[in-house]
Design goal:
Layout: E1 2-8, E2 14-21, E3 24-32, H1 40-66, H2 74-85, H3 88-93, E4 98-104, H4 113-122, H5 124-128, H6 130-134, E5 150-155, E6 159-163, E7 168-173, H7 182-190
Antiparallel strand pairs: 1-2, 2-3, 4-7, 5-6, 6-7
């Protein structure tokens, strides 16, 4: 298992701790910051914040390992439990190259008002046409506010609109290698059905 903690200022200032196992992201812990680092003094203080967050996460992992079941149950079971505890937004955020996940509810409203503001500034035309965008995924007959699952590429290798059937996401990504197929990775994340 590998734990990595880092500061990033785009698309918004944050300290993120990523927990990986053999290169696969198991979990991310993100602390949003009020503003970006602007001075050397702030940079020194931020290094302490990064170290503290990293230490806290390592301590949580150690405590959980102490409580872990006997070895014969094998680590695959533990990984499955961790994956079950992650929200769909966290799982989408764990795809390599994904920078940000905007979560929307069944009605198409942003779950976080701050994210709505950031999204509106970055994509004003999409924000205006959000109701029409929801119609990309058909309302399923007999289902209460459930739509078909799917992924729509809004910007090539950049922005995707995603329906899990019950909620929606905008996934902002940046290509970090040539092998990542964002659309495929997102589909596999939202649905275990390979024929989606």
């Amino acid at each position: 298992m590998h734990v990595q903690t880092e500061y990033a200022y785009r698309p918004y200032p944050r300290v993120t701790t990523t927990i990986l196992d053999k290169g696969r992201v198991l979990h991310k812990v993100e602390k949003k910051l009020e503003k970006a680092i602007e001075t050397i003094e702030e940079q020194s203080r931020m290094e302490e914040v990064i170290k503290q967050q990293h230490t806290d996460i390592l301590e949580i992992i150690r405590e959980n390992q102490k409580k872990a079941p006997p070895k014969y149950e094998h680590s695959t079971t533990q990984k499955f439990r961790i994956a079950q505890e992650q929200s769909l937004a966290e799982k989408l955020g764990g795809i390599p190259g994904v920078e940000r996940v905007y979560q929307l509810g069944r009605d198409g409203e942003f779950q976080n008002p701050d994210e709505a503001t950031v999204f509106k500034e970055a994509y004003p035309n999409l924000f205006k046409g959000l109701c029409e965008l929801l119609e990309l995924f058909m309302l399923l007959p007999g289902a209460e506010m459930k739509r078909e699952q799917g992924v729509y590429e809004v910007e090539r290798d950049g922005l995707y609109f995603v329906s899990s059937g019950k909620e929606y996401f905008f996934v902002k990504a940046t290509r970090i290698d040539h092998s990542t197929d964002f659309e495929k990775a997102i589909k596999e994340t939202i649905s275990p059905d390979p024929y989606l």
